[in-house]
Design brief:
119 residues; 6-stranded antiparallel β-sheet; globular
């Protein structure tokens, strides 16, 4: 997945917003909370960072092309970075980004979820 496809996918999810921050990274939020980041790779290769469940964090931490997200995982957050993957991994990345959106949205208050049309 390239950054354009990443941005298109994130934009298609409900109640999202986009900013460029943190060293020119593509940052996607739902209800003001980050759910995905495109960037943070020093060698100019695409890298995508997303929140995961405990299960997927443990699973993906051991998979080639994935690692606990720099900065975030070292602080105890369950975030993974996909940093080395080809087009064959696009479906998996789509799933994990969509799941990250769901996890972050579910963490919002019910009132905020209603305001955003997520309930």
């Amino acid at each position: 997945m390239d950054y354009q496809a990443f941005n298109d996918l994130c934009a298609s999810l409900p109640a999202t917003s986009h900013v460029v921050q943190w060293g020119n990274s593509e940052v996607w939020k739902v209800g003001g909370k980050v759910f995905a980041v495109g960037g943070w790779q020093k060698n100019n290769q695409p890298a995508f960072t997303f929140k995961t469940s405990d299960y997927h964090f443990d699973l993906l931490s051991e998979e080639p092309g994935y690692r606990p997200a720099p900065y975030l995982a070292s602080r105890g957050f369950k975030w993974i970075q996909q940093y080395d993957a080809g087009p064959a991994q696009d479906d998996a990345l789509t799933y994990y980004l969509t799941e990250s959106h769901r996890i972050v949205a579910a963490g919002l208050s019910k009132k905020r979820q209603r305001e955003l049309g997520l309930l």
